[in-house]
């Protein structure tokens, strides 16, 4: 409130002053009062009236009439068209500020919860949260308008135009109790306001009357950048929609609708055009369901509508009805939409549509036409295929659908293959090339459950060749095959190769059997292929091979026995901290292998047991008999086996 007064008495100068007070009676202007005049002359007949963005003050002085325009900041100046009215510091309610506003004004609403129903009453003004001046989205969620559940929360019904704006509010936890229709949160009738940057959460419009979150009738409104979450609407099998346009030319753009339910409403949808010529563009509708309805979909074009539908993304619209889009007795031109994992793509009921550059993927029924409908569908990716110029049936290769990223990879078949070289779908390229996994392949030889006998006739020159089919890679990446064999009897083995086969000599298998003291072994083997990113196992693996080496063991053992005792030089040498000592036993012997320092003191006993004949080895880890590390230097190691004694030197580095 601004109060103006004349200081006029014996001890006063007769000038005019003004003060601006908030709702608590406190001064708003720094310094308290503003000086309107400073002539010092006596004044009379002061009149005050509100002007555009200022307060007009007129008075009589020395038989002349004067006037000033006092601006809202306390300065004098020309009228400021488009003043700012503050809620609640100047006006206790939003409606009070609207009632005091003039065309072009802005009602700026501080964060808080406002329980009121507001009507613009024909005023072309902007009503917004502090998001208007800060672009801080936290002000959207913290500036809440909740009506009294008796009717529409915001009403435009007096021919407001596009300069009437509602910007940056949250409407939440709304349950209407009235059964009178239409049941709406925002009701637009015979008006064309701009509804932008608002949030609608946890609402329940289920009273069995015509209902909508934003209801437009005979309107040219712009509905843009709004978010609708966790809402339910319907009942009574009457018309319903989150955004509902009747007899209008509405632009519905960049809105996001998710986690909604529409039920027992007919016809219905999340965006609904009834006898309208709307532009429905760049909206996202995800995780929505419909129940107990037939003519219902994420987007419903009905009753003589003729709409443009472009760049929309619809994901998981499921339940009853027609999934992504249904047209009933209407027409539409649609392009560059992405419909993924819906119960259906397009459904035309006595309707005609022209569709191009779309992606319809993961839907059980991409297109449905009744006997009175037509669709001209071209240059689109339609899962299951559809006859038409430029149409393809291919995986779109989305960048990361598991993380809700439905942009296209660099090698997507939908890039540059739309009409006139355009991209298909609502989103363009968003990442590098898609990595194709290596193609499926199979194990071939030896076949599953093969039995192999190794005997004296084949042990020297025989082998097992493991082989498999070749895999391929659409990215032309180098493929590496990882062959692995596991056996409880002779241990596990594996190799990496770029080939498609690998051979193991029978002699190597017999050595493994001797080392593990077995004569038969069962080997389970399989092959994986990798391109460095994805790995694929053979589609028929693993295979099993049974190997019997008993007949070859006695003959081969003789050829494997050394013909004399020997102690070999350790390897590596010098070493730090591990080295291997090898020795040969031509006969069954009691063996002792001991490490000494250069003074002849015993450091570590490595072997002190009876051993079978063969080629032997033992590892020393540079610790003593107590498990403690020894110092660097020269050490001796000695073997004693029967009458055979031999000593060698080795060097430990630190």
Mean pLDDT across all amino acids = 91
Radius of gyration: 43 Å
- As a percent range, the share of strand residues is over 45%
> Could you give a short account of the major beta sheet?
12 strands, parallel
How much helicity do the residues have?
under 10%
The beta-strand count equals 59
Widest sheet, order of strands:
7-8-11-14-17-20-24-28-31-34-37-40
End-to-end C-alpha gap: 89 Å
Q: Which spans of ≥5 residues are poorly predicted at pLDDT below 50?
A: none
Principal-axis shape equals elongated
Q: Which structural class best describes the helix and strand composition? A: mainly beta
- Count helical runs: 5
Describe what this molecule looks like in 3D.
With 654 residues, this protein is mostly beta strands. Helix content is 6%, strand content 46%. It is elongated, with a radius of gyration of 43 Å.
Descriptive keywords:
mainly beta; ten-stranded parallel β-sheet; 59 strands; 46% strand
């Amino acid at each position: 409130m601004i109060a103006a007064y004349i200081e006029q008495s014996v001890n006063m100068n007769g000038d005019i002053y003004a003060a601006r007070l908030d709702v608590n009676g406190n001064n708003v202007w720094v310094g308290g009062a503003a000086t309107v005049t400073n002539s010092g002359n006596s004044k009379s007949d002061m009149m005050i009236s509100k002007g555009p963005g200022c307060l007009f003050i007129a008075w009589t002085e020395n038989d002349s009439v004067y006037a000033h325009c006092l601006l809202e900041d306390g300065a004098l100046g020309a009228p400021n068209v488009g003043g700012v009215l503050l809620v609640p510091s100047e006006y206790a309610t939003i409606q009070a500020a609207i009632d005091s506003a003039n065309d072009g004004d802005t009602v700026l609403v501080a964060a808080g919860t406002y329980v009121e129903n507001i009507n613009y009453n024909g005023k072309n003004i902007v009503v917004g949260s502090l998001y208007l001046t800060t672009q801080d989205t936290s002000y959207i969620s913290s500036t809440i308008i909740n009506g009294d559940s008796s009717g529409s929360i915001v009403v435009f019904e007096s021919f407001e135009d596009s300069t009437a704006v509602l910007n940056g509010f949250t409407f939440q936890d709304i349950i209407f109790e009235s059964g009178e229709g239409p049941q709406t949160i925002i009701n637009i009738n015979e008006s064309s306001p701009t509804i932008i940057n608002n949030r609608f959460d946890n609402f329940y419009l289920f009273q069995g009357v015509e209902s909508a979150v934003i209801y437009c009738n005979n309107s040219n409104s712009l509905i843009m950048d709004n978010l609708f979450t966790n809402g339910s609407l319907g009942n009574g099998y009457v018309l319903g929609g989150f955004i509902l346009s009747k007899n209008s030319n509405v632009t519905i753009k960049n809105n996001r609708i998710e986690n909604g339910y529409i039920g027992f409403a007919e016809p219905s949808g999340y965006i609904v055009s009834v006898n309208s010529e709307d532009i429905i563009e760049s909206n996202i509708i995800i995780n929505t369901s419909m129940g107990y309805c037939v003519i219902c979909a994420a987007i419903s074009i009905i009753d003589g509508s003729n709409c443009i539908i472009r760049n929309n993304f619809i994901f998981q619209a499921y339940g009853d009805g027609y999934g992504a889009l249904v047209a009933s007795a209407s027409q539409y031109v649609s392009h560059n939409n992405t419909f993924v994992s819906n119960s259906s793509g397009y459904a035309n009921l006595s309707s005609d549509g022209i569709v191009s550059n779309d992606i319809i993927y993961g839907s059980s029924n991409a297109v449905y036409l009744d006997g009175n409908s037509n669709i001209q569908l071209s240059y689109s990716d339609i899962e299951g295929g559809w006859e038409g110029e430029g149409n393809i049936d291919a995986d779109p290769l989305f960048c990361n659908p598991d993380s809700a990223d439905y942009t296209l990879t660099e090698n997507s078949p939908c890039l540059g293959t739309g009409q006139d070289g355009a991209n298909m779908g609502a989103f363009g390229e968003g990442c590098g090339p898609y990595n194709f996994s290596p193609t499926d392949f199979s194990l071939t030889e030896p076949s599953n459950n093969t039995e192999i006998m190794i005997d004296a006739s084949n042990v020297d020159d025989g082998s097992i060749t493991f082989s498999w089919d070749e895999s391929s890679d659409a990215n032309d990446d180098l493929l590496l095959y990882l062959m692995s064999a596991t056996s409880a009897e002779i241990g596990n083995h594996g190799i990496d190769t770029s080939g498609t086969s690998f051979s193991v000599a029978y002699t190597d298998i017999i050595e493994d059997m001797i080392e593990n003291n077995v004569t038969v072994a069962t080997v389970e083997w399989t092959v994986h292929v990798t391109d460095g990113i994805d790995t694929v196992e053979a589609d028929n693996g693993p295979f099993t091979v049974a190997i019997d080496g008993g007949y070859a063991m006695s003959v081969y053992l003789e050829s494997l026995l050394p013909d004399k005792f020997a102690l070999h030089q350790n390897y590596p040498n010098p070493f730090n901290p591990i080295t291997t000592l090898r020795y040969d036993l031509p006969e069954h012997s009691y063996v002792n292998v001991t490490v000494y320092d250069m003074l002849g003191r015993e450091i570590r006993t490595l072997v002190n047991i009876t051993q079978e004949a063969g080629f032997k080895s033992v590892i020393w880890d540079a610790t003593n008999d107590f498990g403690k590390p020894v110092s660097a230097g020269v050490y001796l190691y000695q073997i004693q086996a029967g009458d055979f004694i031999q000593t060698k030197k080795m060097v430990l580095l630190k």
